[in-house]
Amino acid sequence: MEGSRSVSFVSRVSLSRACLSLLAAAMLATWIAAPIGAQPGSPNDVGILVLTSYGEGRPGILSVLSGFGSVLVDSGLSIENLYIEDLDLQRNPDPAYQDQLASLLRHKYLSRRIAAVYILEQPALDFFMSRLKGVAKGAPVIVARALLPPDAGKSGWHFVSQLESYDLRGTIALAVRLFPTRWRFILVSGNSESDKAVLASAEAITRELGPGKEVTDTLGMTLAEVDSLVEAPPEGSLIFILPYDLDASGRSTVQMEVAYSVAAEAKAPVFTLWDNPVGRGAIGGSVTEFTGVGRQAGSLVADILAGKTDASTLPASIPGPLALKVDWKAARRWGLSTWRLPSDIELVGKPPSLWQAYRGFVIAIAILLAAQSALIALLLIQRRRRLRAQRELADSESRFRSLVEQAPEAILVFDPASSRIAEANRMAEELFGLGRERLIGSDPRFFYPGKQPDGLPLEESFAANIARALSGETVAFKRALMNENGSEIVCEVRLARLPSNGRSLVRASFIDVSEREAAEQTIRAALKEKGALLSEVFHRTRNNMQVIMSLLSFQARATKGEEAAELLQKSIDRIAALALVQTKLYDAPNLSEIDLSEYLSELVASIAESPLFSGRQVLPLLRVESSPVNIDMAADLGIVFNELVSNAFEHAYPEGAGEVAIALAKGEGGGFELSVSDRGVGFPPGYDPRSRSSLGMQLVYEIGETKLGGKVNFESSDRGLTARFVFPGSGKREGNSRAFLE
């Protein structure tokens, strides 16, 4: 039963009825769209009971229910849990009917868990308190447009009264402010007791306005008489619609229908206490918003269901929502300048301006035009870029062709797909002795003789080189060509892949190196001959030195004097040092320099094997770095090295046994440092090596310092002697080579 009633209510509200306002229809459309089966946070069997005093279709009641239901649905309450009962008590005053109705409602709701009750108007409140005791016991009861009895607090329900907010003073003040020259007030009021109470309050307020105001009311008039009055009001009238439940004949009326009728038929400005007539002929007033009243009650119930508000803490009464509203169309009808209305007044019903009415279209068209303009601009930019790219491409192609044409080498473009020449430059015409028209379309293998510099079969090497070029590699090799005259030409060939859309092309450049090859062969022959000559010179020089050393050796053995024999042996050792330079040069790959470390190592070994030191047990310790030295310095350095090392072997250890440390290291600025150290007896006391008392010391200083630009230093002590020879990487070359010969 209650489910069908709920659906009936929703279906009724969703229909387009003449008595419904556009606002109520919009609110209820949202409500209907809510999912029927949606469940709030409360249990499924918890419901909200709504009792209205009259039957279906009253616009004010529908507006209140629209606001009430929309808030609850938005909060998550299912429509199935909203129980709406239109009691229709005014048309059915029979106690027997009301007893049966009460019995039915108790049967429906005594076992239900009712979370809250919403009661609209006095008849429904009286019916609920007198006939529905026990229903929704302890639940909060919100009452609208009804007066609570004094003993309401003892009933077991917690009542909250939405006070009837008839802002008579605000509505009358608004009328006077808008029409200060009108002096007649027509108060349209019903004949019920509550109607008369509101009328009395309105008359009291008008008397406060002072003398000069005439007040007329409709007490004792039927609805037909009221219609006649408002259709032909006296001059200077303002009409105020007050509550109207009964006319003078005792006929029950629908208050909003009376308000709509008066507002539509009146020939004077009409002011109202409710928002529904605004927009139906009434100018406006400080009105009660029926939808707002429902929303206010719905918010209280939603907070209770959500646990945000404790029902026991709710106030006993809350004021209803009010708003100052003026209808734009009615205001214009009665000559009001709507743009001069105070800012606190809400102007309703104003038709939208052209911008407001067609803003969407204007914005859409503007966006479309902007998009089209942007598209056109982009197309123009693209066109300009394309033209510029075409010009740049043409310029680039022209520059490329010019570079190819002006290139010093012959250039062919080969198409591997057809195995034919696709393009050729001017130098290619000269190299092959053919015009471009004959070169293009030819097979390049036609110009290759069978014998090639690489010795490989032509087809095999040709295919391999093309494949490497197509893979992105730059291939370089030599090729023998046969030009149109039958002359064989040797060329350096370079292959590289050319970027091309949809084609694989290979660029081949040819440089004629025939003359260079001939010159290189001549140079190689000359170098070979020179190398042979130098080898012969070195060989003969070394042999001559061997002959000289042999002669001196024979002379030393034949000499009876021991001192003379020793001098001859020293001369042999010096010549051996020079001969070792010739041997190293003969064996070296580079005839202009020798490795100083290898030379020094072999020189020390030669000195150690000299007959002069055959009876001594001197151990050389070498630590030398590999350093190349030119041939001009090698002989001079050999003499200095020989003298310093021989001196250590000869004089350091009179007993005949010891160690000599020989080190050669690179110094600063590209120079070298030779150190020869021993732990022997050192120099005799008072001996000055610079006195040059011996030929060996003369050679060391004259060659080492004067000729080579080095520095010789001796450090002698009872712990031994250290000879240091620091010399530049390239000798001074200023010394007189005769200095040590004289």
Number of domains: 5
Q: Any guess at the CATH architecture of the largest domain?
A: 2-Layer Sandwich
- So, the CATH homologous superfamily of the largest domain? Histidine kinase-like ATPase, C-terminal domain
Strand order of the largest sheet: 2-1-3-4-5-11
Approximately how much helix is present in the residues? Answer: 40-55%
Assign an overall shape.
elongated
Count of DSSP E strands?
25
Note the main sheet: 6 strands, parallel
Low-pLDDT ranges: 1-44, 733-742
End-to-end CA span: 148 Å
CATH topology of the largest domain: Heat Shock Protein 90
Number of helices: 20
The whole-angstrom Rg is 64 Å
Strand coverage percent: 15-25%
CATH class of the largest domain: Alpha Beta
Which oligomerization state do the chains in this entry correspond to? single chain
- Indicate the structural class: alpha/beta
> What is the residue-averaged pLDDT?
82
Give the secondary structure arrangement, pairings included:
Elements: H1 2-14, H2 22-32, E1 46-52, H3 59-75, E2 82-86, H4 95-109, E3 113-120, H5 122-131, E4 140-144, E5 158-163, H6 168-178, E6 184-188, H7 193-207, E7 214-217, H8 223-231, E8 237-241, H9 255-265, E9 270-272, E10 284-288, H10 290-305, E11 317-319, E12 322-327, H11 328-333, E13 346-348, H12 354-406, E14 410-415, E15 420-424, H13 426-432, H14 436-439, H15 458-470, E16 475-482, E17 488-498, E18 505-512, H16 514-558, H17 562-587, E19 593-595, H18 596-608, E20 617-624, E21 628-630, H19 631-651, E22 657-666, E23 672-678, H20 695-707, E24 711-717, E25 720-727
Parallel strand pairs: 1-2, 1-3, 3-4, 4-5, 5-11, 6-7, 6-8, 8-9, 12-13, 20-22
Antiparallel strand pairs: 10-12, 14-15, 14-18, 16-17, 17-18, 19-21, 22-23, 23-25, 24-25
